[in-house]
Structure formats: structure tokens, C-alpha cells
Amino acid sequence: MDALTRRRFLLASGVAAGSALAAGAGGLGLAELLRTAPADPSGAARTKKLVLVTLYGGNDGLNTVVPYTDPAYHAARPELAYDGEEVLPLDGVLGLNPVMRGMKRLWDDKRLAVVLGVGYPKPDRSHFRSMDIWQTASPLDPVSTGWVGRWLDGTRAAPEAAVSFEPVLPPVLAGATRAGSCVGVGGLALPSGITADAVAGLGAREPGEPALQARAASAYRDLLRVERLVRGAEQQQSPLAGNGGAEILTTGPGGRSVLETQLALVARCVEAGVPTQVYSVSLDGFDTHAMERAGHESLLSRLDQTLSAFVARMARTEAGRQVTVVVYSEFGRRVRANASQGTDHGTAGPVFVLGPRVAGGFHGEQPSLTDLDDGDLKATMDFRDIFGTLLAGVLGADPDRYLGSGYRAKRLPLFATD
User: Fold this and answer.
1) Number of domains in the chain
2) pLDDT in tens, 215-263
3) What is the DSSP letter of 336?
4) Cα–Cα distance for residue pair 65/275, rounded to 1 Å
5) Could you tell me the CA-to-CA distances from 295 to 292, 298, 342 in Å, in that order?
6) Domain that holds residue 154
7) Which of 85, 190, 259, 396 has its Cα between 20 and 30 A from that of 199?
8) Largest CA distance in the chain
């Protein structure tokens, strides 16, 4: 591709400005990330690591951790409620959704903590505002930095200290002076008539070109490089320990979820000794306003299989045994089902914390299904107490410095004694 055509394409597409912005916000290719691993990763094997799993859409906590003995639960959602013989009981009151067999094994192994009734003051039912609150840890005043981003600022961390394998950098990793890195894994789908050679031509260096245009060109080179590396990670297979190799943590042409690809890349980085301490991954689709039961079960099944396989893989290495996973959503659903056999935006819900270092069991108090706030659950646990505990217990940081709004987090007993 000649220089004139290439420059016109970059400028007309608007990529120059967008690419510069992305680079300024911590753009990092997977190849660069893997190159940060030391030649001998054994020295970093004891570094604690955090994996944030965001469930976008508002997960129905009452059909995830099911209050199967509560008559108010069955009365509020007769078509959606699970009977006692259907759930996977955790005790005599609460049980997991019947598709979550992998998580039940982790519970039995005391590697799964279930934090009950998690929310924040003055709940907001907007997806965008509520997720913003969770990721910035600032329920009352909008702020422009995430709680992990502020930790990056405070520690003057390198870009690879926090990595997202999502399409765009989530607010949680954005600081004022530092930001995590974003490595997208959606794959490269070229439009008709555009070949990989043409994309490679866009990424070719041109002598004397402006710096911003050079950055834009590098974005095209990264597209091809990340595509190759992602496909390599997808082809890795890892049997789920203790299950006869029936489950694998991989992706392939059969249409496995983006979450599986993301966690496969996290596993690869952890095992390689990459110095990243925080990873961000996600699964969407939880806005279940209609015909919820089948769709929700499908999502929870995918989440369950992927997470349990990932934790099993992590348990095999010293570096992996330092990994803690937290699973959250922007809000739960309303207690009463709607007329479309679904549920609408609610408030509090459960949060999962899992991994070899976790003190398994229940933490917090299950909200009442009869003492409601305009039909919604009243939160019994502030989400900042969880994030504060993770800041202290995983990142070795002072929670009061990074949670914002002057909040003093309570330390939860989420971790077994090291």
C-alpha cells in the first residue's frame, strides 16, 4: 500500500486520534505483556493476584444463591422459583442454582466464599450509573477514577500491573496519572474485500510520518499480532482437575464464550510469570427482563464451568495458588417477577470470592424478602468492604487510601491464614 493511500485511510477513519487516546490510556499488546515475564518466573510465584469478573446486566442473585426454604421467595416468583429438590444446597436455607455444580464442588472444598446482600447506599437502577459506582467505589459523588486505577496512581505502577482482556478499558482500571492496559480478545473479523495483507500494509512504518499517525499504524500491527496470540491461547487445553478431564478451559470453533478466552489468557499470563497483579474480565447478558429461567441458567452454566475450570488450573502451580477471583454484578433483580416471566432491575445481590487462599463459607447476612424497600432487597453489606478487603489482602494496600469518599472499610475474614 503506498504512503499516500495509507495516510488518507488513517486520517479518514479517525483512527489517529482514537489510537493515540488508547495508547495514552495504557494500550498494550499481548506480545508486550508476555515479554514482561522474567526468564525465571519462580521469584514472582508468591505474588498475590486478583481477577475481577464483571457480570454485566444485573445478575438475579435470588436465582443464583436461592433462598429455597423461604415462602416469600416462592410467593413472589412462582414461575421462576426453584424448589428445594432442584437446588444444590449450601445449608438448610440457601442453595446454588442447579446448574452450578462446579461452584458447589468449590464450596465443598472450602474454596468459595459467598458474600450475601451486597449493595451500596441510595441504590441506582441504571446499568451505567450503578456499574460506575461499583467500579469507582464512590456511591455518592461521581468521580473519574476507578478504585484499582487509584491504586495504580498511588503505587506509580507500570502499565502491565493491571490488565483488562475486555474490548475497552473498564473504568475500574483508570487512574488520574496511571491506567491499566487493555488487550482485546474479540478476534479479527475483516470486512469483505479486506485482506490480512491490506491490514498489514496499514501497519507498515513510513519514514518521517507524524508521531500520532505512527501510533495509529501500530494499532493495525497489533490487530494481527493479538489475533495470532489469542488463537494460540484458544488452542490450549487444560483438563479440569478431579473430573476425569471432562471439562477444558479453552475456546474453539464451537462458539465458546469470550469469558473462556479471557480466562485462558489470564491463566497463560499467570503461569508465564507476568507481573500483572489485577486482571479484569467479563460476561454480559444478565439483563433478564423476559423468559428468564432458561437464559439465566445458560449464563450461569457457562460461568460455572469456566470459573471452576480456571480455579482447578490455577491450583496446579505455586503462582496460580496466589490467585483470588471475585465475581460481581452492578445490581441484583427485584424480588417479585414481572409479567414476562423475568425480573426487573433491583438492588442487592451476592458476590462470589473464590480461590485457594479464600476462607470458604457465607459472609454477611441474607436480606429479608419481606422487609423490603419499595419491593427491593435492603443491602446488608457495603461492596466497599469487599473491595477494601481485597486491596489489603491481595494488593497489600491501605483501603482507606483508595476507596474514596472518606469511607473506612470493614475488613472481612475472606482469606484463610497464609
Assistant:
1) 1
2) 556 555 555 554 554 454 444 434 333 333 333 333 333 344 689 999 9
3) S
4) 34
5) 5, 5, 10
6) 30-191+232-402
7) 259
8) 73
